[in-house]
């Protein structure tokens, strides 16, 4: 039979979901299973007949946000139906829309509007992952884990994954590299203590101890992405330089510079502070006259 549908160009996401979201069973079969078929193709399904999605990529749902959505649903109803697949007679499994599903339960709904799709486990995983990546406000780490699962469990290559989610290969790779960071840094990304920009800078530090030192400083001092990049750059440049004396650790160098600025402010004159990796060094406080010297001595409480 000839296909009379117009040949419209689809987005990257459309190509991914279009291949997966197959048509529901024939009308006669659907009417046996779901007598409440509507002309729109949306079914009213009892909430207690729906299982949660075991492939859900989001691991955390904000309780307050869910309660707000539940209040909205009480007033406005479900604006966008969830998507499910049929497992058995009057038994369904959630594909996408878990926030709406959970909020509807909080709102006390007995039934929820849903699209019914046919999908095997792999297709269901891919649909759930792609739908969440595109529609939910996932943090960078959740996106990275979703990309990793699409590659590993859906047997996709990075180019194919990029097409599915509408991202180029470089962007996909940047997210995947986050998973190589130590657990404490990954947790900070998840909890939004540091941004994707901070994480991308930290990835370029090969030494884990130095990586963690810069990370700790970035969090404690709320350093900008540029400052973290500068610390990482100084570390990497020092590592490649040929010098007779070992390069001072960039984190320690940063701390010494801050202390030098504090001393200069305290004494009201330029102060020179030097130290080596063995914590040996010197402090120089210049003076320009006898009265200037007396001023410094008074600050030191020597006279």
Task: Write a brief structural summary.
This protein has about 300 residues and is α/β, with parallel strands linked by helices. The chain has helices at about 10-20, 25-35, 65-75, 100-105, 120-135, 140-155, 160-165, 170-175, 185-190, 195-205, 210-220, 225-240, 250-265, 290-300, and strands spanning about 45, 50, 80-90, 90-95, 110-115, 270-275, 280-285. The chain is built from 14 helices and 7 strands.
Describe this structure in words.
With 303 residues, this protein is of the alpha/beta class. The protein folds into three domains: 12-126, Conserved hypothetical protein from pyrococcus furiosus pfu- 392566-001, ParB domain (Alpha-Beta Complex), CATH 3.90.1530; 144-240, Arc Repressor Mutant, subunit A (Orthogonal Bundle), CATH 1.10.10.2830; 250-299, no CATH class. 52% of the residues lie in helices and 11% in strands. The protein has helices at residues 12-20, 27-33, 63-76, 98-106, 121-135, 140-153, 158-165, 169-177, 183-190, 196-203, 208-220, 225-240, 250-267, 290-299, and strands at residues 43-46, 50-51, 82-88, 91-96, 111-117, 272-275, 281-284. It has a five-stranded mixed sheet with strand order 1-5-3-4-2. The chain is elongated, with a radius of gyration of 29 Å. The chain starts with 11 loop residues before the first helix and ends with a helix.
